UniProtKB/TrEMBL annotation:
Classification via SUPFAM superfamilies: F-box domain
Protein name: Unnamed protein product
Biased amino acid composition, Basic and acidic residues: 19-29
Entries under InterPro entries matching the protein: F-box-like_dom_sf, F-box_dom
Disordered: region residues: 1-30
Residue ranges of every copy of the F-box domain listed in the record: 40-86
């Protein structure tokens, strides 16, 4: 989002042009590769023909919503090339070219004529409005609109998801709180106009716009999810098992530009590890078992990752930023992308072993390396590794999962009549009684099969519900978790293992239900609608039902429906929409609920997180409108709960 001060922008034009010409002459291969790939990801490079194709599958109202999310998108989508076609589609027969006077803006014409249509429609509705639609599911409109995107998913482009970044990362304000006021500053002082940013945020939170922003961003997000699933599915089809992790890594580059940062140094790491391995092991090869040799190889890799320097900027620039391969992986890990880092590790290991022809007989999956070793039971060792170290397990230690698979009939019965069908009390008892844990919650599967812990950490006062709550500007742990689960599900379907299908489908349903994402519903409908399996149909019917009920899982024994929330606290001092401050962090109250007589509030904080907190925590109501706008104006997700921000009452309505 361009929020630049025009004066500064013009002042720096010549300097920027000169720098741009110099930059093009750089010969550093790593930087050139990274720059080329990053530029490819820019939505500026998409031609109008592509946008016209995309908008031809959308309703004009949806195009309006998309335009609201981003100034760049607005500039692209206001083109006469696009709106002339939409005008023809809306009011004229597309079989011929209508004779219309040439206009400066078909968008303006469309808006004027559409307004007349709306006025007529409103008159009709006043006559026919004999019943109320207030009880309609709040997600239904969003689901109906996002369905349009799925008409022809093959026409969407890998980098289209970058539209969801409706503000440039550099424009995010850093807030510095003083004793009396909150002052907005930026990383490039004087370059961004804080007042202009504030005015833009106020506009985003204005009446009737916030919900539209939420719908527009959700549509863009569904495009990204669709491409994500299509990519993982195609990668698996190319190589059923073991997965071609090299192909997977390259495919992820089309989804997530952050992977470009890792590619330039990758081949150097591989070459170093192969050279050092041969110098260390090949001379005395018979003195090591294959598992010991594999451990040596992994340790060489991990040590090299920690010392491999990379330049985020070009090394010849005045202030080059130097980082390390390991730092980038850690950054991705702690931003929620733990599984993405594991793909990077395993893909490198696979490449190294392929080049060390004949040294190892292995199978690589997403979680471990299964190594042929005659000194282990069943002649197999299972090698798990991460930054913390390397763990080697025997077949017996990983056999628990097979015990569960010995009773597929009982498993299917349990899944088909499982936790989604339970009453509240039954569900609570089932989760608390771990001796009767179903496959969905078997602890071994969580640890070693899926390598994803439950996305919750309960303390006495707070429960995390999501990592980003659809904050679209950061890599989301939801993306990676669903990518992993979906890949497991498709793999089991391709291999025809009914038990694995049940296991993975049930886990997928849990995540779909957990995040209540309409695009997950669409993905399920799109992918499974042609499947003959009654079992799959039954499982995903449950998934769809869960989404339509709009339930949010708080923790294992409880399921919260948005309908269970009430708007005013028992103490009458707080209400839905109030903005609170606690230890320097701002929260918006979304609603209140009770559990065993204790009152909690569901709250949305200034980091984009949704959480539950006890009401006995010390709080202070915030009345500084500027602080509220700057902290929350960034989040489209607020449109899920509120219509707008009221500056008079300092609350969200």
């Amino acid at each position: 989002m361009e929020l630049c001060n025009n004066k500064n922008k013009n002042k720096n034009t010549n300097t920027n042009n000169t720098k741009s010409k110099e930059d093009k002459t750089k010969t550093d291969s790593r930087t050139n590769i990274s720059t080329t790939m990053t530029n490819t990801a820019s939505i500026y490079d998409l031609p109008l023909e592509v946008w016209s194709l995309i908008t031809s599958y959308l309703e004009p109202q949806d195009v309006f919503y998309m335009m609201l999310t981003n100034k760049t998108v607005f500039a692209l989508l206001r083109s006469n090339y696009i709106w002339k076609n939409l005008v023809y589609q809306r009011w004229f027969d597309n079989a011929y070219t209508p004779t219309l006077p040439q206009m400066d803006s078909y968008l303006v014409y469309f808006g004027y004529r559409n307004k007349q249509d709306d006025n007529l429609q409103n008159l009709i509705e006043k006559v026919l409005n004999l019943c109320s639609f207030n009880d309609k599911n709040e997600w239904q409109d969003l689901i109906d609109q996002t369905k349009i995107i799925w008409k022809n998913p093959d026409n969407f482009i890998p980098k289209l998801h970058s539209m969801s970044q409706h503000l440039d990362e550099k424009c995010r304000l850093q807030t510095t709180t003083t004793t009396t006021t909150t002052t907005a500053t930026t990383t490039n002082e004087g370059f961004y106009d804080a007042e202009l940013v504030k005015a833009h945020f106020k506009s985003r939170l204005s009446e009737k716009k916030l919900k539209k922003l939420h719908i527009g961003s959700s549509m863009l997000e569904s495009i990204r999810f669709q491409k994500l699933f299509a990519t993982i599915y195609n990668a698996i089809l190319l190589d059923k098992y073991p997965q071609n992790l090299e192909q997977m890594l390259l495919s992820l580059n089309h989804i997530d530009p952050h992977y470009y940062e890792l590619l330039p140094a990758r081949q150097r790491v591989i070459n170093y590890v192969i050279t050092e391995y041969r110098r260390t092991v090949d001379v005395v090869k018979d003195d090591y078992t294959s598992t010991e040799r594999l451990i040596i190889l992994i340790r060489l890799l991990m040590s090299k990752l920690k010392e491999e320097a990379m330049y985020v900027r070009e090394p010849s620039s005045e202030n080059p930023e130097v980082t390390y391969f390991e730092d980038l992986l850690l950054l991705r890990c702690y931003s929620g992308d733990t599984y993405g880092s594991q793909i990077v590790f395993n893909a490198i290991i696979e490449s190294i072993i392929q080049q060390l022809k004949g040294c190892f007989q292995i199978e690589i999956n997403e979680h471990c390396i299964i190594n042929q070793d005659q000194y282990f039971p069943h002649e197999k060792s299972y090698v798990f590794f991460n930054r913390a170290g390397i763990t080697v397990k025997t077949y017996k230690q990983v056999a628990d999962i097979y015990k569960i698979r010995k009773s597929p009939k009982e498993l299917m019965k349990d899944l088909l009549h499982g936790w989604l069908d339970m009453t509240y009390e039954s569900r609570k008892f089932s989760y608390s009684n771990r001796q009767n844990a179903t496959i969905c919650f078997h602890p071994f599967i969580y640890k070693n099969k899926f390598v994803i812990s439950r996305p919750l950490n309960r303390s006495n006062n707070e429960v995390k519900l999501t990592g980003q709550v659809m904050a679209l500007t950061y890599p989301s742990s939801v993306d990676r978790a669903l990518l992993l689960i979906f890949s497991e599900l498709i793999t089991s379907m391709l291999t025809g293992n009914a038990t694995e299908i049940c296991e993975n489908a049930s886990y997928f349903i849990e995540w779909v239900n957990y995040y209540s994402l309409p695009c997950m519903l669409l993905m399920a409908e799109q992918f499974f609608k042609d499947r003959d399996s009654k079992l799959i149909a039954s499982l995903f019917t449950k998934a769809i039902s869960a989404i339509e009920l709009n339930r949010i899982t708080i923790d294992a024994p409880n399921v919260l429906s948005m309908n269970e929330l009430y708007d005013k606290s028992d103490n009458k001092e707080l209400k839905k929409g109030d903005v609170l401050e606690n230890s320097g962090k701002y929260h918006i109250i979304v609603g209140f609920l009770k559990d065993d007589g204790v009152e909690f509030c569901l709250r949305f904080d200034d980091q984009g997180d949704l959480s539950i907190s006890r009401m006995n925590n010390a709080r202070q109501i915030v009345t500084d409108n500027d602080s509220i706008v700057v902290r929350f104006g960034f989040y489209d997700e607020l449109g899920r709960f509120f219509n707008h921000f009221d500056p008079v009452t300092h609350t969200f309505v």
